[in-house]
Amino acid sequence: MPPLRLLKQSDLLQKSSNTMEVFQTSRDRSVVVEASAGTGKTFALEELVLELALVERIPLQKILLVTFTEKATQELRTRLRSRLREIVDAAQSGKAWLGQEGSGSRWEIDAPRLEQLKAALLDFDAVPIYTIHGFCNRLLREFAFENRLLFDQQQANTRELMENRFRLFLRSRVLPPDSPHAPLMRLFLVHAEGNLETLKSELLQLMPQQGRLIPEWPPFSDVMQTFQNLLEDLRNLDQRWRKNPGNHPMREAFWLMNLHGSSEKGILSSLDRIIEVLGTEDLSTEECFLHLILSQPQKVVRPRCTKNMKDGKQYASPEDLPEAEKQWMEALGKIEGFLANNELLVEKPEQLKKLLKAWLIRELLPPLREDLERMKLEEGVYDFDDMLRIVEENLIPVQASGGENPLSPLTDAVRSQYEVAIVDEFQDTDPRQWTIFNHLFLKSTFHRLIVIGDPKQAIYGFRGAEVLTYLDARDSMLSRRDAKRLNLQRNFRSSEGLLDGLNRIFQSPGWFKNPAGMTYSGVLCGNPEIKLIDPLENRRPIHFFEIQPRFRIARNQLEKMKQKPSNPFPDEMMAALFRAAGTDCRSEDDFLKAVSGETGPDLCGKYRNDLLNTFLDPNRKKPEQELAETIAQEIKGLLERKVLWHDGRENQGSLLKEHHICVLFRKTSEGEILSKALSRNGIAYAFYKQRGLFQTREAREILDLLNAVVQEDQPQRIRLALLSRFFGIPLEETASALTTQPKLIFHFRRWKQMAMDGETGRLFQDLLEQTRVMERELFLAPNERGVTNISQILEYLQQRIREHGLSLAEALRHLQRLIEDKSAAEENSDLLRLESEENAVQLMTMHSSKGLEFPVVFIFGGFSGDPPSEHYRYHDEHGQRVIRLFGRGIPEAFDEETEAERQRLLYVALTRAGGRLYLPYVNFLSGNKPLRWMKYKPCCQQELMPSLDPIIEEIHLQHDDPSPSSTQDAFPFSSSTVILSDTTQNRVADQKQENSDTELFQGIEEELENLMKRSGIPHQQGESREDFIHALKKKRRGFVVTSFSRLQKEREHGRSSNPGRDSNFTLPHFEARAEDDFEETREADEPESINAESPASSKQADPSMLKLPGGASTGNFLHEILERIDYAQVLESTSTEEWAQYSGVRQQLTRIAEKHGFSEESLEEASSLVWHTLTRSIRVGESSSLKLAECEKRIHEMKFYFPLPDSRMPFTLLGTEDSRSLWDGEGWRVKSGFLNGSIDLVFEWEGRVYLLDWKSNLLENYSKQRLAEAVYEHYLMQLQIYALATVRWLKLHDEEAYEKRFGGILYVFLRGMKDVDAFHFERPSWTKLKAYESELERPKRSYPAAISA
Predict the structure, then answer these.
(1) pLDDT for residue 328
(2) Which pLDDT tens digit goes with each residue over 63-122?
(3) How far apart are CA 921 and CA 946, in angstroms?
(4) 1277 has a pLDDT exceeding 50
(5) In this structure, are residues 81 and 839 in contact, taking their beta carbons and an 8 Å threshold?
(6) Packing angle of the helix pair 784-804, 773-780 (nearest 10 deg)
(7) SS3 1043
(8) Maximum Cα–Cα distance for the chain, whole Å?
(9) How far apart are alpha carbons 727 and 705 in whole angstroms?
(10) What is the percent of the chain with per-residue pLDDT over 90, rounded to a whole number?
(11) Bond from prior residue into 618 cis (ω within 30 degrees of 0)
(12) What whole-number distance in Å separates Cα of residue 320 and Cα of residue 197?
């Protein structure tokens, strides 16, 4: 039989004009292959294995293949087996050639080689293809003797071990009075709001991480000893002065010092605190230590002084002080220097908590590690991270003499088993992994090491992978004489035009600057047949969405500008701008045109740049929503205009479908914005590889159900399972269900027997059939996601039981760990698969997209910065890993490494596309470089924009001066602007999705018929399917909520849009939201009708409007202040100014103001309103009055759920006759469910409970009559619901209890409380309260349970 010829196709083995260097099996033993995205890395790896097996005759069992994910391992195993099978089949059939024929380098499969391949196929399961952890786990199990381990040693979970050990560690090693850690732990618990769960979580996170912890604080006991000596010296000096009555001399000295005006207050405050600490004798050394840190002694030791002496001042600087004061300052300076040298100074009081926690973590981490290691050794277990450490320690044992290490038994055993190691995705390695491969293979003269990777795709730094390790390893490997560096230069994923564009972007200055050694070489197109054919012009391979600026002229902004000396506009311009107040434009041209209409073109042109700069709206929220809508419309257009996709593998192109399109984003919150836009446009979408399967509600309910099966003799377990959606039995009926439905107990006993017999597959199937949970979730919610979650979790458990021989109880313990540890689930099993997702636009994070490819890719988001970090991980100037636990600012090295990783993440995202890539672009504000239209912190888009600037400029030049068509065809870029039409804007703002039952259930007629037969609900003759679905939803729909504010908005919308309607007008049906769709938001204080005043009248009514404008933002600002401040401090103070000077008050108020975007001037006004409100005497009832600051028993933002009637048809929710007369018979139409509410303040005074609602309304006056009108016109419904909810909460079942316990309801109008009693008090009688209730009585209706008795 003639040999089979097989042409080598990889650039690693076949010489061409692009690849002059190829792999030589005879001499290349240390090989680095660098492969850019899309260059066929996995295919090249297959061919390397064939080369080693067919040319060098190395058995496949001697070739170790290592990659970094289970998914990649399975893919590689499948592809390699298929390739071998294809070769064997072709050789046995007598073919002369397999695949393409040619004269290049090839393999010849003769009889001996055929037998070799057949033998490899027969024993293919023994071919060593592992993840790095799988390889180490195999070494630990196969070579337990060489690893000096017990043969029955088991793998354990670190988090579970920590749960069992942490509190014991605290009790035995930390909390005993004689423990060296006890004083620091005491300070942490008392002064840092010590949360042991947070402490445990951070310790657990740091356990496996390698690196030097900084700051390198001395032991706490040593610090206290040194500090005590320094404190004694200062106290001795200070006590001499305290013998004499009168003011402290240091106070007098600093009053006479020429301090800088803006710093004087802070310096004197710090001095006062230091003097107070020194004079308090009963403080312990540790307490003095903390108080001196909080006093910020650096301000006193190095006070800021002015150069020009002010009147009345005597000392220009501390050097001019008298000798005694200088000695005092020197003693304080020694303490300050000691604190500074040990990095123990803070700039803000809240930093002290972080300092104490960081110090405690540094002290506890080493002994806790030792304690856990000892426990694991005693119990014969190891955790996931121990595998690498144990293997490393046994490969390279530490020699006490410091001499050359002899080969360890484990090294000999491994080297005898393998001849070659090929490591894929090597850019994701870490130092310990590299040490293992370096020692086993690179340091051996008889073994080969081949690594394949792309440092530009090193994006897993947060998991411990280090691109610096890759670069160091590359240098070490290439330093050998038998080394070779190879590159894959041809891309087989993307079209030629797309690659041209990407090459231009990535070769721009600024890309891959850090770390040194990173380069980008342009890639060539390996398959010219790849094409995306779009009939729409102006759509090139890379298309930019140019986000347009927004400009707003707000009257309150103009008022503030008038008061500022730095106002750039003259009076004439300001008058014109006031006329243009309210202007809101979405482009430079439109804005300038609108302003020019008021000012004239000359004046507008003169101040053009100042106008653009001043009135630019840099908020990115609105542009992000517009970009999302633009992407959705572009996707819709792609699908409608029949775009063709040629993947280069088939002769004929196929129509572009939803699943060919992917949208990438940085954060899941960005994906949610996008998903809403896709929904509005009717586009099917799916979140690919969404993490958190084991943190879903379905996972917890499955755990509860199966625990009840395993422990069916425990009624409390069964009752917990009955609450789940598997049964849907209400809480109040769970206790009686076990007696009224005996079949439930029968089922649980039968399921337990199945589990004991090892029939878990049958058990899971029977669970689904008997509970009918799939049918209810799919047809009633409809909740396809929930169905998929249930299916996949049960499938995962079954697979785990089958592969590992687990009992059901053991599998449930594993599920419990996955639920408790969000990071524990394996990356490739924690996916949410959905059958319909195969035909949907794929939404995913940039990290999740690695290794995937799509014909069309959109980049969305990436404008938000990285999340704040508790600990900063980076490398010092020597390349050593550092973990900074505490310090000032963000380390420069951390910023550089983070920026470099963001660039690499962008590279991964941009190289996923095959035919077209869509990118957002934010240009400069013309005439104001380098100011861009949107403000964003360091983020992905910040790395991308500079490389796009010259491209966008060239696009605009081509548009203004068109080039010949041949030149344009070669240019791979195009752009369009992101400006939505008014119609689309309104559609986005007033999103009301229509999901009729006929649409939801279209195409499932057969399933519906079966469901109707099995439902247990009587089916009336002539009843439509829609009516049946409504009945079914009422039976098992579950919890739905709406809120008063949503009802109010519906009512106001109906009133404003139909001002001339007749009395019979009714609002449209209002659909209550499901629980999963509910977002907690505070109700707006000001309905639209109240805000309808003119600016002039508002100003006349309330001069504070300029400082605190009307609207929800001001309401939120005032509410948060009232919720967070200490009422006791307000009560102690005699004025707003005195209260603001109390410890911590100013900082707290400033943080709240900054959070809500309010200025210092607004904060002063808000503080005044709050202080006067809480200190003004308020009369409640005939004989009782109170100050709100005096109320000690109070609850802020008390949540409640108020049941609405259970009616098949929507109904009108009205109050009593009072409401009808005020509202002209109108009401809110809602379907059954729950009304969600949040009462601003519930407090107790003189034995009675009162409700209070803060209102920030702008009214023309705050007379009692006007306040009553406002309440009855806009808040009467709220008053009734709140009163009923509170009465039910207090369980006031009769009039006597009501009169004794319920005080009433207060509406406090904050803006008026400075001048008048701006509150409205209401206390409905018991009769009126029952009238409210009768209107909302909920009818009873019973349904059979999911499993009937």
Answers:
(1) 93
(2) 999 988 877 888 888 889 999 999 999 998 888 888 888 778 889 888 999 998 999 888
(3) 10
(4) yes
(5) no
(6) 150
(7) strand
(8) 116
(9) 10
(10) 24
(11) no
(12) 52
Closest by CA to 797, choosing from 815, 809, 785, is 815
**Tens-digit pLDDT profile for residues 481-527:** 999 999 998 999 999 999 999 999 999 888 888 788 888 888 999 89
Q: What is the pTM of this model?
A: 0.67
Q: Which percentage of the chain shows pLDDT scores above 70? A: 78
Is it the case that residue 1246 has pLDDT exceeding 70?
yes
Q: How far apart are CA 755 and CA 742, in angstroms?
A: 21
Strands (E), 225-301: none
Give buried/exposed letters for 517-548 (b at 16+ CB in 10 A, else e).
ebebeebebbbeebbbebeeeebbbbbbbbbb
| Among the listed residues 1304, 1344, 1343, 1310, the one whose alpha carbon sits nearest the alpha carbon of residue 1325 | 1304
Q: What is the pLDDT of residue 722?
A: 85
Pairwise pLDDT comparison (161 vs 885), residue with the higher score? 885
Of 692, 720, 781, the closest CA to residue 1075 belongs to 781
Tokens of 1219: 């409401």
Contact 23, 51 (CB under 8 A): yes
What's the distance, Cα to Cα, between the start and end of the chain in Å?
Answer: 73
The token pair at 409 is 């038994």
Q: Strand 490-491 and strand 483-488: pairing?
A: unpaired
Half-sphere exposure of 1216 (CA within 13 A, CB side): 15
Q: How far is CA 825 from CA 691, 793, 818, 822, 848, in A?
A: 9, 12, 6, 7, 15
Other beta carbons within 10 Å of 957: 11
How high is the pLDDT of residue 152? 54
How far apart (Å, rounded) are the C-alpha atoms in residues 985 and 544? 21
The Cα-based distances of 1330 to 371, 1216, 1223, 1225, 1228 in angstroms read 64, 10, 21, 20, 20
Residue scoring higher pLDDT (465 or 559) = 559
Interstrand relation of 1248-1255 and 1234-1245 (parallel, antiparallel or unpaired): antiparallel
Report how far residue 398's alpha carbon sits from residue 753's, in angstroms, rounded to the nearest whole number: 54
Angle between helical axes of 697-710 and 715-722 (0-180°, round to 10): 150
Mean pLDDT of 558-570: 88
Q: Does the pLDDT at position 200 exceed 90?
A: no
Q: Measuring CA to CA, which residue among 78, 89, 16, 79 is closest to residue 44?
A: 79
- 532 three-class SS: strand
Tokens, residue 905: 């993440």
Chain-centroid distance of CA 250 in Å reads: 50
**Which class for 77: exposed (0-12), middle (13-18), buried (19 or more C-beta within 10 A)?**
middle
**For the residues 1003-1009, what does the mean pLDDT come to?**
43
Report residue 206 as tokens. 């740091």
Q: Give the separation between CA 712 and CA 144, rounded to whole angstroms.
A: 40
pLDDT computed for residue 560 by the predictor = 86
Confidence bin at 827 (pLDDT 50/70/90)? very low
Residues composing the chain: 1349
Please name the residue ranges forming H helices in 345-447. Answer: 351-379, 386-395, 409-417, 431-437
According to the model, what pLDDT value does residue 1076 have?
31
Characterize 825-839 residue by residue with b for buried, 16 or more Cβ atoms within 10 angstroms of its Cβ, and e for exposed. beeebbbbbbeebee
Confidence of residue 832 (pLDDT cuts 50, 70, 90): very low
pLDDT at 778: 60
SS (H, E, C) 110-122: CHHHHHHHHHHHH
Question: Does the pLDDT at position 1212 exceed 60?
Answer: no
